[in-house]
Fold this sequence. Notes:
Radius of gyration: 27 Å
Distance between the termini: 46 Å
Strand content: 15-25%
Amino acid sequence: xxxxxxxxxxxxxxxxxxxxxxxxxxxxxxxxxxDGLGVEVAKNVILAGxxxxxxxxxRVAGAEDLGTNFxxxxxxxxxxxxxxxxxxxxxxxxxxxxxxxxxxxxALTVDSLPLLNAFQCVVxxxxxxxxxxxxxxxxxxxxxxxxxxxGSVRGVFGSIFCDLxxxxxxxxxNDEEPVEGFVGGVTKANPGVVSCLENxxxxxxxxxxxxxxxxxxxxxxxxxxxxxxxxxGSQFQISDTSGEEFAPFQHGGIYRQVKLxxxxxxxxxxxxxxxxxxxxxxxxxxxASLCTHxxxxxxxxxxxxxxxxxxxxxxxxANQLVEYANSLASSYPALKDSVDExxxxxxxxxxxxxxxxxxxxxxxxxxQEVLTSASGKFTPLKQSLYLDARELLPSPxxxxxxxxxxxxxxxxxxxxxxKICLGDEVVKKLADLRxxxxxxxxxxxxxxxxxxxxxxxxxxxxxxxxxxxxxxEKSNLNRxxxxxPHHIQKAKSTTAASAVNEINPDLRIDSHQQKVxxxxxxxxxxxxxxxxxxxxxxxxxxxxxxxxxxxRCVSNSKALxxxxxxxxxxxxxxxxxxxxxxxxSQDDPPSKDVPYCTLKSFPASIEHTI
Length: 610
């Protein structure tokens, strides 16, 4: 088995572990559909280090694809256009030298499905429903089954579906360190109740398993596993400890969580169409998932019968889609024979467009599901996820729809799909935006790519200012996709600016290599500089710099977008002057500097015995 290149994969190796990394390195992935969502999935999966990726498409690149696929260039759209998979191939292939990347343009039909037998995971993007059902059925019937994932972005609506076979084993459902703590007491009862030492919180959940060690008195617990039922924050139940074989508890003991493999069962796409299981991404819209599910089924029917998607902001087409959706609603009792007609109309108005940040968000989730299917790491999506950005649409909506020219002027260029979603006025505001971003690492690269897709700061009034004092290292290449091996030891900010201008030459970017700190406050980034900005963005990796940026934005009344990642976790905070709290308004909960369970091991410093 090939060794893991720690100089490239060090951060990812820390999160996934060697076993999962080796499983990834044996996985061959097929991704069909190189639109904005498909290229996001491909980019993320290749960076993660699977064995091979075959990108597939039968469509040629058009001018509108430049606004969604960041690996297409203007020359790919001329003379009838190049195949989207073949045009994206050279850019995808240079992301990771350890991944074999190929392109295919063979049409997916019943006769060509055996080509999928060479893959462990198949991903379909923006595929017709009938084809998705056909491919999923074929993948399920193979031995071993081929993992199947599909998804699409339609305007401001996105969807993902996962089918990881009837019996998919999850080796580690959350990648958290196993919970452990000191035992304060165990009752001799049915069931026995375990109390934590000094009423410390146990951190367990019902259904987890624990194993005991070093218990005095009730020594029968030591070395055995017990399933937990939480009774309170500091107490949990185990099995019957009232029998004669259990001596009374005296003192001491440690409980440790034992992570056991979990088997998850999935149903086919055909079955889930009528009885879908949802993962709710937005608890502010708990009923939107089922309505979106039905609306997208109606959209597939509309396209199948009409041969095209609804026209942008067409009231007539929106009414037709509502009729289709209401006819399907009777099959879903939870809808009470009707759907949210406003939601269906929004889908009709924008379905021929595409909102690039939605591609980025769903592309990250879909890629994570590919990695989960290959590694058994983390709990998989079960089974559908629907996400929308309807808040971006004009309010109030046009009551009967409006002509495309009154809301969005389509010019046959890269911004048409964006205009359909946001309208001319908002797209112009983005073009005029003056934005300051600190940090050009993993988050910074993704943000710059999103700015390129949105056409941020492309007018004479707009400007993106970026700064980062770091140089590019090999370990950065695993997640900072704007950088290549020949960029190592070059400045992140200037390299990122050059790379993003290749994605969208219209952008105006000014790059710096200074820290944003008190030492540069007067010479580089004074108050006058901040006052010229419309928006500030943090893409930082330390709290001190975040707090300093927050203080500058507060003192200059500027909005701040704050974000960060830690392993498989992440956070986003939108800070608006005079409306929300600032980043520094709250501190993270204090962590235990000295884990209690180190006290009974081998003390190496005085803190271990306090």
